[in-house]
Amino acid sequence: MLLPTIQALQILGGSGTTEEIYNKVVELLNIPDEVLEISHGSTSQSAVEYRLGWSRTYLKKYGLLQNSVRGVWSLVSTSTHLDDLDAKEIVKAVRDADKNKAVPSDMQLDEAVESLETLEELTWHRQLHKTLLSLEPSAFERLAQRLLRESGFIQVQVTGKSGDGGIDGVGIARINGFLSFHILFQCKRYQGSVTSGQIRDFRGAMQGRTDKGLFITTGTFTRDAIREATRDGAPPIDLIDGEQLVQRLKELGLGVKITIVESVEVDTDWFTNI
Q1: What are the residues whose beta carbons fall under 8 Å from the beta carbon of 153, sequence distance 6 or more?
Q2: Which of 16, 81, 99, 246 could form a disulfide with 20 if both were Cys (CB 3.0 to 4.6 A apart)?
């Protein structure tokens, strides 16, 4: 997926978020839903997401990509031509470079730290995802309620009534303290992918009750489900998949503790100016 990643970024104008790159690569390669639904081990990531993650890493090490602290990936040069690139050569060059790092330089140490951070990221992702899947349905609904409250929603209530078409709760979203709109939400502890049929069922339950819906899952959404959620002429439904969920829990500090490591640097210039 190395060259499709480059192609996707070129189409996106030279830069894009992880999600934008994923959607564009899936479109370019026409990857079927049954392939997209294959998960990578016990994580919330799919096998395709995992492979795309490594593709970005290889392209960055090769000098073709760079990424910002905000998670936006961009081409180092917009004049890169796909015909001049060989995926096998990129993989070989990166692996050879890794093997030849006998004496670590400052740059190599930075890459080692980055690799360690990536490993730590995968570790806490797996642990949090496993914890979410182990929750009782009622506990997961309460977690969704807390998540929405911490995100600025008000009057969030968990209904969880049987026979209510999958509506798990209601709330009011406030925008800049002035505008507000009612939402209905559904939350699913799910290992697999939510289908377009489940999105339609949720929208049917929303009919006449609200103009906006929110679907939260620990799993993923099929392409048809994503298209159905934003279908023209139908009440829109915002989607939060497992990856977005764990990231949001981290940002809000809900069940995730972040330890800041102190970094000390000696300013030699300071001493020369005494």
Answers
A1: 171, 172, 173, 174, 183
A2: 16
